[in-house]
Design brief:
Elements: E1 9-12, H1 18-29, E2 33-38, H2 42-54, E3 59-63, H3 69-83, E4 88-91, H4 106-134, E5 137-144, H5 146-149, H6 155-175, E6 180-187, H7 197-208, H8 223-229, E7 241-244
Parallel strand pairs: 1-2, 1-4, 2-3, 4-5, 5-6, 6-7
């Protein structure tokens, strides 16, 4: 199936590693030019660019802290200057600091909300005018199912992600008349380089019992669905939340 992404320009935040990296690679594999956003991992971002280009794709890295609105607008301006447009925005960047709520401190709250909620607001606000002018575009916000069902140790993370769910629905209504779709992908536990491997090994059997498919997620489980939702083939899908979680949460 041709997803209609050839020649499109896609910005993926937090694209240097893990899920974001795989999203960037998958979009590039469908023919999109990918703006690979990173904040600290310059070497990892370069590796993503090199892999995309080695396969005949096109990509460029952009350093930006999504928690800083001025930084985000500068990045978006640079992408539009370089490629002339932005057709897809994937808000993948996030920050998780697992703690019991009573053990958290205000600085913990701010870090997670600044990246997990304000980062999405910043990127949407910077990109939306360009999509409105084009009368086309797709925004895909990446969150976790903790926002839908609640999760111990993730109260503040879940709160920021819950804000993203609401933002997604509201923007879908606002931007729909301009031909812009806005959707959300929520996923369960994914094994990444950021996962505490000692904790995962210790709790593995208990964790997988909560997943009907009998395993936790992998980065390859997420990118195909995001690529489809971002594509022309999903042009009549907007304001929706799709959970990719091995059956962990089944929300009606």
């Amino acid at each position: 199936m041709d997803l209609g992404l050839k020649g499109k320009v896609a910005l993926v935040t937090g694209a240097a590693r893990d899920v974001g990296r795989q999203i960037a690679l998958t979009l590039a594999g469908e023919g999109a030019t990918v703006a690979v956003n990173f904040n600290r991992s310059a070497d990892a971002a370069k590796a993503v660019i090199d892999e995309i280009e080695a396969k005949g794709g096109s990509a460029r890295a952009y350093k930006c802290d999504v928690a800083d609105y001025a930084d985000v607008t500068s990045m978006v301006d640079a992408i539009v200057k370089d490629f002339g447009r932005i057709d897809v925005l994937v808000n993948n960047a996030g920050l998780v600091l697992p703690k019991l709520f009573v053990q958290t401190k205000p600085e913990d709250w701010k870090k997670q909300v600044d990246v997990g909620l304000y980062g999405v607001i910043h990127c949407c606000h910077a990109v939306a005018p360009h999509m409105i002018e084009q009368k086309s575009g797709s925004i895909v916000n990446v969150t976790g199912d903790s926002a839908r069902v609640g999760e111990k140790y993730l109260s503040v993370t879940a709160a920021s992600r819950g804000g993203v769910l609401s933002l997604t629905k509201s923007l879908a209504r606002e931007l729909g008349p301009s031909g812009v779709t806005v959707n959300c992908i929520a996923f369960g536990l994914i094994g990444t380089t950021h996962t505490d491997q000692s904790w995962l090994k210790k709790n593995h059997d208990k964790i997988v019992r909560q997943y009907p498919l009998g395993r936790i997620g992998e980065v390859d489980d997420i990118a195909p669905a995001i690529t489809f939702i971002a594509s022309a083939q999903a042009g009549w899908i907007t304001g929706q939340i799709l959970s990719i979680n091995g059956g962990y949460a089944m929300v009606g």
